[in-house]
Amino acid sequence: MKNIFTQLMNDEAGFIVSAELVLISSIAVLAMIVGLSEVALNVNNELEDVGSAFSCIDQSFKLKHAHGHKACTESSSFYDSSDFCAGQWDVE
Q: CA-CA distance, 87 to 9, in Å (whole number)?
């Protein structure tokens, strides 16, 4: 039993490989953290652009003298007013 314990204590064959794996894995984790934070920032910017595009849609319409076979309307209209914080740079 003492012979096996001394052999295990003197065995250093896997130390270099494990130290290299720890170094490579820590570099990979740091690179993933930086990359995912950049992805999150760019997704947030794109969603801000989509929100600004939706807020700039004008839904106003005007309908004059629609005549059908049994109905008639003189005129109808709806004017869309701008929303609060409807500018392109208002969403942050």
A: 70
Q: Tell me: the pLDDT tens digits for 12-50?
A: 666 667 778 889 999 999 999 999 999 999 999 898 888
- Structural domain harbouring 66: 1-78
Q: Does residue 90 fall inside a structural domain?
A: no
**DSSP per residue, 9-50:** HH--TTHHHHHHHHHHHHHHHHHHHHHHHHHHHHHHHHHHHH
Residue 43 in any domain: the answer is yes
This prediction's pTM: 0.50
